[in-house]
Amino acid sequence: MRNKKNISGLTSKKYGLKTIILPALSVFFLCSLACAQNLLKNGDFSDLDGQKKPKDWIMNYEGNGLEGSTVIVPGPEGKKALKIECSKFPLTQNQKWIIIKQDSILKTRKGQKLLVSFWVKKEKITSPLIDVWLMNISPWSTIAKTTVPVSEKWEKVEAILTPNIDSENTRFELFFTEEGALYLSDISVTETDKEEIDFNPVRRKMEKNQLPAKEKNIIVNSGFETGIDGWGISDFDYTIAQIDNTQFFHGKKSVCLDFSEDKLPISYSDYPQSKKTVMQKIQFTGQGWLRLEKGAQYTLSLYGMANNENQNAVIGVYYMTKKKDSKTVSLSPQWKRYDVSFTAQDIFAFVFIDSSAKTYTEKIWIDAVQLEKSSAPSEYTPRFPAEMAIYAKRKGNIYYAGEEISVSLVKFFHDVSAKPKLSLSVIDYRSNVVFATQGPVSPEEGNKEIKLPVKENGYYTLSASVSGENYKYMLSIPFIIIYPYAEKYGAMNARFGINHSYYSDLAQEISREAGIGWIRDWSLKWDAVEHEQGKFDFSSADVFYSRAKKMNMKILSIFPDPAAAWAGTAPAEVKGKKLGDAFADLWYLPKEMNDYKNYVKRCIEQYSDTADAFEIINEPFKAQGWSVDEKYDLFLKAAKEACRAVDKNKKIMRTGLVYFKKNEANVLASRFSDLLSEHIYPEYNDTKYFLQEISLIDNFFRSNSINQDIWVTEYGKYADDNPHFQYARFSHFLLNGDERTSAAYSIKYFTVMISHGISKIFFHSRTWPLGLNIMFNSAAFDMLFKYDLLPYKFFPACNAFSWLLPPGTAPGLAVNEAGPVFAYSFKRANDKALILWTDKQPVKLKSEIINNLNGIELYNMMGGRMEKLDSAGDEPVYLIGPAEKIDLLEKMLIQ
Questions:
Q1: Contacts of 579 by beta carbon, 8 Å cutoff, 6+ apart
Q2: Residue percentage of the chain with pLDDT more than 70
Q3: What whole-number distance in Å separates Cα of residue 10 and Cα of residue 139?
Q4: 664 Cβ neighbours under 8 A, 6+ residues apart
Q5: Is residue 151 within 8 Å of residue 121, measured between CB atoms?
Q6: Domain 208-385 adopts which CATH fold?
Q7: What's the pLDDT at 567?
Q8: CB 531 within 8 A of CB 537
Q9: How far apart, in whole angstroms, are the C-alpha atoms of residue 317 and residue 324?
Q10: DSSP string over 10-52
């Protein structure tokens, strides 16, 4: 049985209604090391026993109800292969695996780099990944783990595992968790001296597509003549950097970093500790990665100035390998050139300038930045004779339906004789070209607004090609057209929320346009607000509650831990000991439940004007020395009594069904609460599978005669069409597919959920800044924004769902859940909406349906108007019209 707790620094995540451990190490496509010794036995399956099974290998179908078989079959390149087939894999809440393993054969050393290599293909398995684990048998723990891609064709895959302990008692295993067949051939584990970063798949794609620049200065917009384009602040998604056209060394502009206290970025984080941070140290960087020649000599130079004497700054380059070359310089009130020369340690790097506030009066100016392949600085030269940049109308590149869509084209001619040609094109979220034009650009025109003949809601990408004599470069910005949801509805009866408030005000404000009206707030941890008995301090929590109130957002308060340090029954030896990302002593029972009740009561009193619901303990699998089945109801009873003493209209929320082993305890938890919290992370694209998971809740309610409102307090389905290199192996991205597909299935799942008793859905989000170039975490927990605060394709899809099923819309009604055309109807204020789709393959609609679409408004999943509808496809579509017309269509869709 797998250990479901955090071990060896792994991250616990949720898959549907089940808790599993996601892979934390890296997948790489490597070249095999010839003649290296295989640390496994019989990896080529050449040695068979009397039953024609490969010796030294153990095949297990672990879990109730699993059925399958294994057989040797022909493999790739004339090799033998093992076919492992699972013919029956029942869907239950119990964990199950189909495993091939070797025990006590592979020996490991801590820090050793092991190259895992094998051939693999699949049949009928939907997951694009296969798990590879290296375990310590006794005591049971994870030594290393990763995932490898698998498709219907034979492919040789390779991965690096780095053991975290010395062990001679290991288990090497590969496994999958669904019906279908897995084919394996030529499995080997060998020692290697390769480095992880060299085989990062995103990096390898960059190596192929991004060649070293031919120009002397490889930095674009190095003099800031076209604004801030291509530059930003490393730590946050908005910038204190402003263009200054009164101070400059070269051209007509420079960039000014103003360290006044009211200009510095502010970060908010409610987990693991609640804090508001004013960032005093700022890293100003070029956005994206520059291609260098490893081992070549380079010089970075810039002109700098400060308003005070001896303002220190650090200039340099930061490599993708996390190494850097830098130099500390002292700026003064006069323009002066500063430089640092170095030998490139990697082929990818970005330029940075670090400085910090000490008196909150500092200002520094930067101009004429140059990175050249040279051992010393030469005369400053802009990269291109004509530079251009494109800017959207507002932050987040958001436009509203019905307004004119235009962008600003900013130009600067270093050479007035240059005659570049500008080619513009706009593609939609399906990569269809919706607009294209081209023509010459001259310095006489000046900057101008370019109107784009794009009207329908959706996600678009504007690309521009600038070409001249001996040079050519590309510009690209995404933009979205959405409904003005925040302006019209605010947080009124909002269906969506965010788990953890956003780290920046800008991100929090923009998120409201997607229909986000709630925050699941973590700032009321018992040990934080009552660190000593009877002494309550809400100063930290006040920051988050007042911030939500200012933004007109509602709060779901969570009391995540069962104890405070002073109130718990933890033994002295576990005080302050880490338990995953929590503390062990805070997960013991309190000495007195009256202390817990008083804590809850004081919190409800403090924030009764902002919070409407209060959740009792997050994911209690961390419970220490107590059983959820036997003790959790005590917390609910105490919280319910506290709530009634303050405001009987406030609601108490229980934890999810999965944390109980006994049905009677699960039922009791619902009796003592008003709301049910569930966490859903569907890393798959399959409506019927999702319906099976939702049926677990339906069946529990039905069999126990329970009628309770359900809130999904953590939902996550993440995708990125162009992931940052640090997210190259983020399992959600790999499993969910492209942004369009992932967005489509989220809309499908939302439709299912609000038709099965779920009224609110909170998107699980990070609690750290997005960052620029270097990410702060290898997990990309954000459904709405990319790391530079530009929207994902899910954003306009979520906005359309919120707008087309606005506040006041009744819960959905399942019209057809058998497929192949899934359909759900919703009663709006004055009419009805019908949402329908298929999974993967389109299905032509019946002629009687097509003939009855007159008077029906048709919208795609982004909220764009459709002229006709002949087929249902993988993207949900909205049909909105008079109730009698939708009722007629419903009858035609019922199977």
A1: 6, 587, 622, 624
A2: 95
A3: 17
A4: none
A5: yes
A6: Jelly Rolls (2.60.120)
A7: 97
A8: yes
A9: 6
A10: --EEEETTEEEE---S-EE-----TTPPPSSSSTT---B-TTS
pLDDT in tens, 825-857: 999 999 999 999 999 899 999 999 999 999 999
In percent, the amount of the chain with pLDDT more than 90 equals: 82
Which CA distances in Å does 225 have to 45, 116, 221, 231, 255? 65, 50, 7, 12, 9
Only one residue has tokens 């999958």, namely 176
Q: For residues 288 and 318, is the Cβ–Cβ distance under 8 A? A: no
pLDDT exceeds cutoff 80 at 769: no
| Residues in CB range of 194: below 8 A, 6 or more apart | 28, 30, 113, 115, 160
Closest CA to 308 of 291, 337, 333: 333
CATH class of residue range 12-199: mainly beta
pLDDT digits (tens, 9 = 90+) for 191-228: 998 887 887 889 989 999 999 999 999 999 999 999 99
Classify strands 651-654 and 471-482 as parallel, antiparallel or unpaired. unpaired
Task: Give the tokens for residue 644.
Answer: 């009634």
pTM beyond 0.85: the answer is: yes
Domain boundaries, the chain: 12-199, 208-385, 389-467, 495-804, 813-893
Q: Pull the structure tokens for residue 259.
A: 């360290």
Domains 12-199 and 208-385 share a fold: yes
Chain-centre distance of CA 885, in angstroms? 40
For residue 419, give the amino acid letter.
K
Q: How does DSSP classify residue 419?
A: -
**798-824 pLDDT, tens per residue?**
999 999 999 999 999 999 999 999 999
Domain 813-893 listed as CATH 2.40.128: no
pLDDT tens per residue, range 128-162: 889 899 999 999 999 999 888 899 999 999 888 99
Q: What is the pLDDT of residues 10-37, one digit of tens each?
A: 223 333 333 333 333 333 333 444 458 9
- Cα distances (Å, whole numbers) of residue 360 to 70, 236, 310, 890: 69, 19, 15, 64
Token readout for 749 is 């799942």
Residue 246 CB partners (closer than 8 Å, separation 6+): none
Pick left, alpha or beta for residue 765 (phi over 0 → left; psi -120 to 50 → alpha; otherwise beta): beta
Task: Retrieve residue 6's tokens.
Answer: 């955090």
Is the domain covering 495-804 a CATH 1.25.40.10 domain?
A: no
pLDDT given for residue 92 in this prediction? 61
Per residue in 224-283, pLDDT tens?
999 999 999 877 666 689 999 999 999 999 999 999 988 998 999 999 999 999 988 999
3-state secondary structure (DSSP) of residue 338 = strand
Beta-sheet pairing, 336-343 with 67-74 = unpaired
| DSSP state, residue 785 | B
∠ CA 80-84-87, nearest 5°, is 145
Q: What does the alpha-carbon distance between residue 458 and residue 799 come to, in Å, rounded to a whole number?
A: 10
Which fold is adopted by the domain 389-467? Answer: Immunoglobulin-like (2.60.40)
Highest mean pLDDT among 143-157, 582-596, 766-780: 582-596
Can you list the pairs that 685-688 forms with residues at least 24 positions away whose Cβ atoms lie under 8 Å? 685/736, 685/737, 685/741, 685/742, 685/745, 685/839, 685/840, 686/126, 686/839, 687/745, 687/748, 687/749, 687/752, 687/819, 687/822, 687/837, 687/839, 688/819, 688/839
- How many CB atoms within 10 Å of residue 559? 24
| CA 374 remoteness from chain centre | 40
Q: Which amino acid is at 276?
A: K
In DSSP terms, 161 is beta-bridged to 114
Q: Is 613 helix (H, G, I), strand (E, B) or coil?
A: strand
* Cα Rg of the chain (Å, integer): 29
Q: Residue 239 corresponds to which amino acid?
A: T
Calpha distance 575→562 (Å, rounded): 15
Greatest Cα pair distance, the chain, in angstroms, is 86
Give the C-alpha separation, 773 to 725, whole Å. Answer: 9
